[in-house]
Amino acid sequence: MRPIVGIISNHYMINDQYPAHANGSMNTEAVSHVSGAIPLTFPADPSVVAVDELLEVFDGFLFTGGRPNVHPEEYGEAETEAHGTFDRNRDRVALPLIRAAVDRGQPVLGICRGFQEVAVAFGSTLHPEIRDLPGRDNHRMPPDGTLEEKFALRHPVRLTDGGPFARLMGGTEVQTNSLHGQGIDVAGPRVRIDGTAPDGTAEAIWIEGATGFVLAVQWHPEYNAGDDPVSRPLFEAFGEACRTWRAGRAQAMRRAG
Ligand SMILES: N[C@@H](CCC(=O)NCCCC(=O)O)C(=O)O
């Protein structure tokens, strides 16, 4: 059987009335078609799921993008208007789940808000609006336009020579899309910035001392994941890590009994 990837959901109001947990189908398609895993969305609500249960059910985790920002309380700062909207339920599931999965060596892939969650889970702070910082660019998507226009490639990302991303992508410069307002301000002690945009914004990170696959990107590789030369190796490597985790789990169960 294919490994099972848990994809964290966002909270939506369908027709402004009906509460739902959902994520974009680009994520499920990338996990199924490119990672070769079964994509299962789980609710980001600590009143209905526990971290320990999720760790047992899934072989790896995809922390997706999502409009609401990680609450600044999670990195020791006070809430201001610039921080925008929040999803405290997702914070309360994502942050402990990321720490626990990384601790066990269970695969984690973070995308956009998921990148910010991985960063915060390991002690980073975020800036609420990076375009307001001197010398920094606007990394937000165009407010109008088609999906193709919103997810179009926007800037290069310089990768560390010999680092995990450059090895995966076969080069030290890649082109990426960009759909975010926040960004890493101060990186946590174990957070290694492996890719940066021309204005210095952190775009790709990994976690020092992690025994399993933990990569996170500020861009959206789920878009066009099958064809994009940057997205494809990332989702393929994530799938491989999930297969390895599942095989290890099966072996441990056979030994136990
Ligand atoms: N809130 C953060 C993260 C931005 C992000 O994940 N954008 C993608 C949104 C996709 C969606 O709406 O589901 C920030 O702005 O920095």
Automatic annotation (TrEMBL):
Swiss-Prot/TrEMBL catalytic activity: 4-(gamma-L-glutamylamino)butanoate + H2O = 4-aminobutanoate + L-glutamate
Pfam families from the UniProt entry: Peptidase_C26 (PF07722)
Keyword Ribonucleoprotein annotated: no
GO cellular component: cytosol
GO biological process, one term: polyamine catabolic process
Top-rank taxon, per record: Bacteria
Protein name according to UniProt: gamma-glutamyl-gamma-aminobutyrate hydrolase
Keyword Nuclease (UniProt): no
Keyword annotations: Hydrolase
Signal peptide as annotated in the record: none
CDD domains associated with the record: GATase1_2
